[in-house]
Design a protein that fits this description.
Blueprint: H1 13-32, H2 37-49, H3 53-69, H4 73-86, H5 91-106, H6 120-130, H7 138-148, H8 154-164, H9 179-185, H10 191-202, H11 216-219, H12 224-230, E1 232-238, E2 241-246, H13 252-261, E3 265-270, H14 273-283
Parallel strand pairs: 2-3
Antiparallel strand pairs: 1-2
Helix pairs in contact: 1-2, 2-3, 3-4, 4-5, 7-8
């Protein structure tokens, strides 16, 4: 998708088609995850690029409500003020803004511009700051989450982690060597349960990547060897924001490498390993290549 100013009309029918697909996908995501402000931001921008101000404002109101739910009151106020710049007589925006102003005026000794709850990025970064200078192994970090969620025991996972260390990074082109896929293939735990736990723990939204037409140009923004090593794929670009699907949002090394490569804001989504691998094979023309599979 072209990196274009959101106030401009799509420059081609192909871009408009891609934007429409983005809209349809993220409308579905936000319907099931109404507090996912990350996806709402993308949806709002997509409507803006499509030249649909009424839909953009509709999503902006949902975005403001999501910000309030997450404790980011200053961001919610900013959204409502933006709405009123376009529609000065919007009653719902005026009412909501007045209510937020009343709440902030009651605070004493508190910075009204400060969020009341940490964002996803802050949460993940705080966890990283507590770790040593060398990031924790991504599989180990994910294993700790699964153990904490009581989806698997250390006795079951530790041998798998040792086996995974013997596999050259990025060798597998199927997604079957991802830790959560191994646990699923061996019927230790259901994939849906693992993905639910990952989404809940990370605070990131789930993306059914198999239903998304990955933008090939965007996928090439991150070298494929890094994508295969960490099983992730950039799948869309909205203005200055790259959307990336990952099978392991707790892989701090992956996030660090991406931020070192991309001069964009990065929005992360959780996706199933097999869907990420399939998307990578498609965009890199590797449909005939298959890797091995690890079994416990």
């Amino acid at each position: 998708m072209a990196d274009d100013n959101s106030s401009k009309q799509p420059t081609s029918g192909e871009e408009a088609q891609q934007l429409q697909q983005t809209v349809e996908m993220f409308e579905a995501i936000t319907q099931h995850q109404p507090e996912d402000y990350q996806s709402l931001e993308i949806l709002k921008e997509a409507y803006g690029k499509l030249g649909k101000p009424e839909d953009s404002v509709r999503i902006s109101k949902k975005l403001a409500q999501a910000y309030v739910a997450c404790g980011q009151v200053s961001q919610a106020i900013f959204e409502y003020e933006g709405i009123l710049q376009q529609f000065p007589n919007d009653i719902s925006a005026l009412t909501a803004l007045a209510e937020l102003d009343a709440k902030t005026s009651q605070w004493t000794g508190t910075d009204a511009a400060a969020p009341l709850a940490p964002t996803v990025t802050t949460t993940l970064q705080s966890a990283a700051d507590l770790s040593a200078s060398k990031p924790e192994d991504g599989n180990r970090a994910l294993a700790n989450v699964l153990i904490a969620e009581k989806l698997a025991t250390s006795q079951a996972i530790d041998p798998l982690l040792q086996k995974l260390k013997t596999i050259p990074a990025g060798q597998d082109k199927t997604g079957n060597s991802a830790l959560i896929q191994i646990l699923t293939n061996d019927h230790v735990v259901k994939l849906e349960d693992i993905l639910t736990a990952i989404v809940n723990r990370s605070g990131l939204p789930y993306l059914p990547l198999g239903n998304y037409d990955v933008d090939r140009d965007v996928a090439f923004l991150v070298p494929q060897e890094i994508c295969w090593e960490h099983l992730m794929i950039p799948f869309d670009l909205i203005s200055r924001s790259v959307l990336i699907a990952t099978a392991n949002p707790f892989d701090q090394q992956a996030r660090d490498r991406v931020q070192g490569i991309l001069d964009y804001s990065v929005f992360w989504y959780v996706a199933a390993p097999l869907e990420i691998a399939a998307a990578l094979r498609r965009v890199h023309g590797q449909e005939g290549q298959r890797g091995g599979q690890v079994k416990s």
